[in-house]
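Worked problem 6 (solution included).
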Amino acid sequence: MNRVDAGFTLIEVLIALAITAFVAAVAYSSLSTAMQAVESTRASAQRTYEINRAWMIISRDLRQFVARPVRDEFGQVEPAMAGGAAARFALSFTRGGWHNPNDLPRSNLQRVNYRVEDGALWRDTYPVLDRAPDTQPQQVRLLEGVELLEPVFLGDLAAAEREGRGLTIDTSGWQSSWVADTSAPGVELLPPVALEIRLELDDLGELRRIYALPPL
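Solution. The predicted structure is:
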């Protein structure tokens, strides 16, 4: 009797390799999609955290607003709050509650500026209220991907209007700038009673928040 050797033919081997390659491709595609989804979720969560953190810092500063004018490095008086298109900074004001854990001989008041530069939202603070020519601010980059910071100001509660019958406030008539009147030197600019801050982000578009200033 002749002995026949058992084994796989070339066609069977090629079919097996093709099936293995197909299964591996499907598995890799599924794994890649899952990893991309996880990375996208992680990036979205990180972005949300950064935006909420920026809003938290802005809200904290405004809740501690103090009606205290200051002098800038040029010796000019800055109102307790100033901002808008006609102002030097998008938003500038004096706040209280500056933590002093080392009990240094300084005020607990602090001047804060918010501005947009190089596609980011910046927060500047000064070590003193009334600045000297060589006073340098501490600059902190709060949020990336910011195209615009635009505050609008409400000078009188009587001017506040609601939209329709809801609780939404119409801010279209609020002032776009809050600056001292240069034609009336020596006249103090009183703070607004409220303001709305509009942030334009390159990925999420426009975000808005309205703040009533103390003691309201």
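Discussion: The radius of gyration is 30 Å.
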